Amino acid sequence: MIIDTAKEQILSKGLAEITIVNAQFEAAYYEAKILAHNISRAKTKITDSKTSITRQQINDLMQGVLEANENLLGIYAVFEPNQLDGLDAQLIDDQKSGSNDKGRFAPYWTHDDDGNIQFEAIVEKDLSPDAERDKDGVRKNEWYWCPLESRKICVVEPYIDTVQGKETLMSTVAVPVIKDDRVIGVIGADIALTTLQKLTEQVNHSLYQGQGETAIISHRGILVGYSKGDQNLGQSIKKAWAAEAQDLLKIIQAHQPIIRIHPQTQQIEALTPIYIGHSETPWAMLIRISQEAVTVRAKELDRAMTLLQDKHTKWEIFVGLTATLTALLLIFLASMRMIRPMYWATDKLTSMAKGDLTIQADNKLPQGTDQLVQAVKGVNEELRKIVSAVFHSAFQVTAAASEIGRGSSDLS
Predict the structure, then answer these.
(1) Fewest CB atoms within 10 A around its CB: which of 146, 177, 341, 384?
(2) Residues 6+ apart with CB under 8 A from 29
(3) Nearest to 171 by CA among 192, 197, 199
(4) DSSP 3-state assignment of 256?
(5) Are 130 and 138 in contact (CB under 8 A)?
(6) 194 contacts 174 by C-beta, under 8 angstroms
(7) Residues 109, 125: Cα–Cα separation, whole Å
(8) Whole-angstrom Cα distance, residue 66 to residue 117?
(9) pLDDT at 218
(10) Any idea what DSSP says for residue 282?
């Protein structure tokens, strides 16, 4: 149960984080695609109206794209010989227009170290079909030939190139410029991959306190980011993970998300494809974590929950006792409020029984007991009347007796 839950969590994490990778590439893809589309439309209108789109106008468009996208390392355009305006022969080595040593329009716009934008023409030898190939047989100018030959968007395998004098791990999103069903040029945007290394570290740290490992791997197995260190970045996983490289490549190139228990290491392993635009060569995010780390973490969480529940139970008991004592106190006070008038009435009646028929004004008499007070006062008043009447009658009897006594004296 714990392992199944962990597998779902790891796969979900991978699916969530690839959106960050996608975002970096999508910006480059759409800028290149829109620029290629606009140039293609302009070329179509040129044919119809006999007007011309100038190299300067395209340069202005490219400069605007780069100014609006600081995350792009650079943006370039390369047109086939005489397919833009037919002016190649007149513009050989015209750096101001972005024309190279053969006159082809091939500007490359970049940010320098100070953030300023500048451009240069891509020389002809860098566009040769016979360019040097890497250990996997990939041409170093695949950023040009891939969209030219495939007629599709290409996400170029990661490579290290010099940008404004600095070696940079980068990739390129390149799209073909198509007119009348022919590829007449290529538009591409370069992306620095340094942020992906930081992303793998962040993802790994967020899962089980960094006890696993996270990597971003290209379609052909180039290591783009690795949470355990950057020493192998830009190199094939055949070097980093020689024993399992073929198995990983097979899964990556199947283009399907997978979550499994690794047959040899028994680690939980998730691979999630990363699609860019309409590219048919997705990259992948790899996340690994040992079952032991998952189990230990689950036990820690269980202990934490138990402790939290114990604290919660103690708090409930404390609150319950406090509420009970408060209720008892309120009952006591209410009872005293009810009994006090009775004590007062009993005291007054006892005093009256002893002959004290005086009830003096008392400002401390209980509130809300007017009827009881009036009743006691009424009894007191009646007793006073009775006593007064008795005294009056006794006085009359005494007076009469005195009168009779005087009469008897006179008769004798």
Answers:
(1) 384
(2) 153, 173, 175, 189, 276, 277
(3) 192
(4) coil
(5) no
(6) no
(7) 18
(8) 8
(9) 92
(10) -
Query: Rounded to 10 degrees, what is the CA torsion of 293, 299, 302, 307?
Result: -120
- Residue stretches of the chain with pLDDT short of 70: 1-15, 17, 43-52, 163-164, 277, 293-315, 317-318, 320-321, 324-325, 327-345, 347-349, 351-412
| pLDDT of the residue at 47 | 47
Separation between Cα atoms, residue 55 and residue 303, nearest integer Å:
69
Strand order across the beta sheet in which 213-217 lies: 223-226, 213-217, 283-289, 268-274, 258-261
State both tokens at 25.
Answer: 């590439």
pLDDT of residue 48: 47
Q: What domains can be seen in the chain, in order of their start residue?
A: 19-192 (3.30.450.20), 196-294 (3.30.450.20)
- Identify the pLDDT of residue 103: 96
How does 187-198 read in b/e, with b if 16+ C-beta sit within 10 Å? Answer: bbbbbbbeebbe
In the numeric block, the tokens 């975002």 are attached to 23
Three-state secondary-structure class, residue 39: helix
The pLDDT assigned to 268 comes to 82
Q: Which amino acid is at 355?
A: G
Which two three-digit tokens encode residue 35?
A: 């620029």
Phi and psi for 69 in degrees, rounded to 5? -135, 85
Among all chains, which residue has been given the structure tokens 């103690």?
Answer: 314
